[in-house]
Amino acid sequence: MFHRFRSAAAGLLLATALTVPAQAQTAAKTDSLNLRKIYDEALLRGQSYDNLRYLCQNIGARLSGSPQAEQAVQWGKQTMEKLGFDRVYLQEVMVPHWVRGAKEKASFKAGKGKSQDAAVCALGGSVGTGGKLKAKVVEVRSWDELAKLPDDQVKGRFVFFNRPFDDRLIEPGSAYGGAVDQRGRGPIEAAKRGAVGALVRSMTSAKDDFPHTGTTRYDDKVTKIPAAALSTLAADRLSAALKQDAGLEFELEMACQTLPDVKSYNVVGEIKGAKFPAEIITVGGHLDSWDLAQGAHDDGTGCVQSMEALRLLLATGLRPERTVRAVLFMNEENGNRGGIKYAELAKAAGEKHLAAIESDGGGFTPRGFSVEGSPATVAKLQRWAPLLAPYHADGIGPGHGGTDIGPLKDQAQALIGYDCDSQRYFDLHHTAADTFDKVHRRELELGGAGMASLIYLLSKYGL
């Protein structure tokens, strides 16, 4: 995401070679050769793609609390044990258990026209409809629009939140951030006004009939109403129909429910540091996924890349000087309890985290890393951009680290997010289309190599 820095990094590499002392030039040459070893191993003998194939095709969707999530925990543990890490263990964590139930159904009819089915899915955590729920619809695109509506235009209706992605933005993640509050707050704000349900436009700029799920929220002080996502095409059709017939009725049927919490686990694999074992570098992704597909890009890729990063260090003989952990976090999608638990246990044990790295933006072509930390910390990481430039992973700048590692903010010197090309990510995110066949082997393996390279540098030089 920060690839604009690449040409500058190449120039910096040349300038550095002309100005630094001979000893530093020797170290830089050694580091360059070692990074080449990492990339050669990844591209010729990488294991991320095969591991992802098994996770997606043999286990599949892994929503917290599900039998598949438990299978994924055991798979993660066994895989890391086979990779020969110094220590592999589980961290117990209680997670929410929401189930979708039978496939959702929705339809509407404008005027005297034919009834139209609408591609729809329940938002994560939603209550069910208790049979068929039929009501009129009011469409809004902002919180101000909702606030200005008279009560009689909201009460007893579905509120249809139809604010689209802002496609003028270059980074789709920014467009996502500008629209996702509808999904999170929509049911609460609609219920406050007496609505019977919330309909939300899917969080994507893609025009298709794949509805996007994702977590929604409730307030115990406000009535819980059913909340569903419409595909972008269904949202467009409903919006057009409302212009023809403002009194049309929308029918929704959802059988989702929340069951008691379930015991689950983070999976942790560790290589002990050869010189500074008390200093820890964590790298991870989240093992859980939504229930509509295989959770390939979100976030199977992050899990296999994190394990692969450690394997690459061992396979190339670059045993880290600081302790490195690969963590497969549980429950990022609908609670982040795995990330919270990991940070709690680290704090209770008095551990010192140098840095934490997260891959949760898909397994697309690498671009670099975004950093949460002080300006001085960001600058220290940017000094390695010339070494990463040959692999197009040198875009290093301030930005978001990640949800799973977020709870470590007060314990780690830097939270680092792996950045890759995000233009296609939200076409697949939280949909039935997030399957193994959408992942490109070389892109995936390059990402793991980039993460391993940064770990190698962090482990050798610290911050």
From TrEMBL:
It comes from Hymenobacter edaphi. Residues 266-446 form the Peptidase M28 domain. It is found in: Endoplasmic reticulum; Golgi apparatus; Lysosome; Secreted. PANTHER family: CARBOXYPEPTIDASE Q, PROTEASE FAMILY M28 PLASMA GLUTAMATE CARBOXYPEPTIDASE-RELATED. SUPFAM superfamilies: Zn-dependent exopeptidases. The keyword Translocase does not apply. The keyword Ribonucleoprotein does not apply. Pfam families: Peptidase_M28 (PF04389). Homodimer. The monomeric form is inactive while the homodimer is active. This is Carboxypeptidase Q. InterPro entries: CPQ, Peptidase_M28. GO terms for molecular function: carboxypeptidase activity; metal ion binding; metallodipeptidase activity. GO terms for cellular component: extracellular space; lysosome.
